[in-house]
Write a structure and sequence with these properties.
Elements lengths: L1 E4 L19 E8 L3 E2 L1 H8 L2 H12 L4 E7 L12 H14 L4 E5 L3 H5 L4 H16 L4 E4 L15 H9 L5 E5 L11 H5 L11 H6 L7 E6 L12 H11 L9 E4 L1 H12 L1
Parallel strand pairs: 1-2, 1-9, 2-4, 4-5, 5-6, 6-7, 7-8, 8-9
Antiparallel strand pairs: 2-3
Length: about 270
């Protein structure tokens, strides 16, 4: 049960364990490959060591994990020619220095994927291997958009290849079922059973049939209609949908939301 926080947080507005009750992972956004921490990643780094320690204790006292999201829509490391091992080392250093429990890899270099030559997939695979080498006991999740799991679409194999090669190093997938076009992933059936023809074979159960472990799939949705270009699905409807399918084919009924400012505790209590 994951929530991202990108809107600026300060010492006075950083949430407590009671405020995030129901979530298991609170992810600050972002760290990017050519600049390092930005947004809440930068806000966190600018706090004093004492402030960070106290805030993390308050946040995680109920058992939740504090993570950093690496990447995002503005980060294109493969296209920029940045080496994956070096980027993983820099990220791992940041994670350890600033006390995070793990990393969420938001690789969104779509130009590299669309080249269909395998460069994107190789970059992510090498990056993940080095990141796990540097962070053997931390949690590592990935946050791809759902169509990257489409078979026979990506010349390099897309996320199905990434899952096949380094899935064992990844704890779970915060999969973005939004921002993929109008009327796409906007029904329970499309999300769980059979996806829209524009993005075939990318529903939860279709991914599972393509060897993505059901227990690692987390269904991601925007908190409100303004939190994404499209793909919004109300919290009550999502909760009803996920509870219906929880426990089938390994899927645990887990969800992710973008983002904290518009989700709060109410969203997870409705969905969960």
């Amino acid at each position: 049960w994951t929530v991202y926080a990108d809107n600026w947080l300060t010492v006075s507005t950083f949430p407590t364990a009671a405020q995030i009750d129901g979530y298991t992972h609170f992810i600050l956004a972002f760290w990017i490959s050519d600049k390092g921490p930005v947004d809440n990643g930068l806000s966190w780094a600018r706090m004093s060591t004492t402030q960070r320690r106290k805030l993390k204790q308050r946040l995680t006292s109920g058992g939740a994990k504090l993570m950093i999201a690496a990447g995002g829509a503005t980060d294109h490391p493969t296209t920029a020619g940045l080496g994956p091992e070096k980027r993983a080392q820099l990220l791992a250093n940041y994670v350890k220095r600033y006390g995070f429990d793990g990393v969420d890899v938001n690789y969104e270099d779509f130009a590299a994927f669309n080249a269909n030559d395998g460069r994107a997939e190789r970059w992510v695979i090498r990056f993940t291997r080095e990141l796990r080498k540097q962070l053997p006991s931390h949690e590592i999740s990935h946050g791809p958009v759902a169509p990257l799991f489409q078979p026979n679409r990506w010349g390099g194999g897309g996320y199905l290849r990434i899952n096949n090669e380094v899935g064992g190093l990844i704890n779970f997938y915060n999969i973005q079922f939004y921002n993929q076009g109008d009327d796409i992933y906007t029904s329970c059936y499309q999300i769980m059973e059979r996806s829209h023809p524009a993005v075939p074979n990318t529903s939860v159960f279709q991914m599972i049939r393509n060897r993505v472990p059901g227990e690692k799939i987390v269904v991601g949705k925007p908190a409100g209609a303004k939190d994404a270009s499209n793909g919004f699905y109300s919290a009550p409807a999502l909760g009803s949908c996920l509870r219906k399918y929880a426990g089938r084919n390994g899927y645990q009924g887990s969800a992710m939301v973008w983002q904290w400012a518009n989700a709060g505790r109410a969203w997870v209590h409705t969905v969960r």
